[in-house]
Amino acid sequence: MPSAIEALKHWKQTDNKKYQKIKQILEQVCAMPKTGIGKPEPLKHKLTGLWSRRIDRENRLVYGFDDEYVYLWQARYHYSERSEQSSIDEAVEIDLEDNNIYDTDKDKSKQ
Known about the structure:
With about 110 residues, the chain is an alpha+beta fold. The protein is built from three helices and six strands; from the N terminus they run H-H-E-E-E-E-E-E-H.
């Protein structure tokens, strides 16, 4: 399963329409994590604490959030087990102004 940052880069390179939809969903997630487009729903069982929104019929955006941050777990395929995901420290930042995706741990040092 690719990490969220790899999935976002994949969509940016291969399907701009889907990438733009994901950006729109992410804008809403940041503003209103529990409501908005993509039919947001809390996940259950091993994924309790995470939320999901539909990108399309086959792909889901899986994320968590707290009072300060949104944590993106998955942006491609359907749900996967939380234990297979990388740590929550792998935050993804989207710059909606310049359409860039940043892995906050690696790319911030380049600015």
